[in-house]
Fold this protein.
Amino acid sequence: MLKEQEQGWLNDVIDRISTKMDWVSEKSKHKIPYTTINGTHDNRIVDNPTGTETDEINWWTNGFWGGMMWLMYHETGNEKYKEIAQISEKELNRCFDEFYGLHHDVGFMWLPTSVANYKVTQNPESRKRAMHAAVLLAGRFNLAGGFIRAWNDLEGSDTRGWAIIDCMFNIPLLYWASEETGDPRFKQIAMKHADTAMTAFVRADGSVNHIVEFDPFEGGVIRSYGGQGYEEGSSWTRGQTWALYGYMMSYIHTQKDDYLQTAKRIANYFIANIPADGVIPVDFRQPKEPKLEDDTAAAIAACGLIEIAKAVGEHEKDLYLGAALKLLKTLDSSRIDWTTGSDSLVQFGSAAYHSANHHHAIIYGDYYFMEAIFKLKGNDLYLW
Ligand code: GLY
């Protein structure tokens, strides 16, 4: 899908990813990493090493390491990547026993692990895990409001009516479940959620809300929240990318044109807001100082932009592909550690605008950078 002059750059990046993953995978073989501590992957399999909720086995990012290993297995055919992916998938079984820590993010956790394993190996155990996760997700649907409930009870807040834009990445698990079983209920729930979010989350200018609260008994929007962005009404960049790529996923699974048009509207807004240096802030509407960035958003956006480029005609393709290349080249040249000094690739992630820490490695930055690069090559393993 690339012009000839870009092909050399792409091949070089793939070589560097392969070199880095070769040693990182060995070093972190028995871990499920979220970030790095002094350059070394942490490990979410060990519960609560620092006593925060992000240390838990059911933390929402725990599928990405397995996903990275499946991407590498698909790219190289090296059995070690398959084995490492399967180690982390088995560790996640504990989440089903604990149950209460599970919520809308089961798609993020089991699409890149069990669904991936099942797609590649037809392992029946993986199919069972993925179906368990899909049923849990379907069970979170609120019939009055037409949305999938986010999270479980949060201290100090009644979240029974909360939905979040990130969930656009979880509903592909429901599309998969319908495709796998032939039962339309899962897809019906996914589409109803996507339709609700199209009006309740996506604003006229193509920006999106992070959290919307519905009346959980009667339906209807009560209000929105800034969530992980700067404030209510702002534009949390990773949320924009969950919506951008999320609507493309819904389009890929359903071919409903509204979803493609919505993805394009969000993408056009995103592209218009990419700063000249290609570095993505945590929120497009944050104050000028401090200059907080979230490079994980750049990687996720690139994936969605490439998918849009594949779906539109020749006259529009360059807009989306060009923006994706700008983001990926900025990451490659100034935001990725290609050395052995860090176990992770992308170094400047920010979980949320108001987090205590910013500009650190987060596993999904690496996952989506790799996915985008393999998409450009044209033989990616589509895990969503
Ligand atoms: N919950 C998804 C995110 O933090 O982006």
Remarks:
- The CA atoms of residues 239 and 359 lie 17 Å apart.
- Strands lie at 36-37, 40-41, 141-142, 147-148, 162-164, 211-214, 221-225.
- The chain has a mean pLDDT of 96.
- Residues 60, 166, 228, 238, 351 surround glycine (CB under 6 Å).
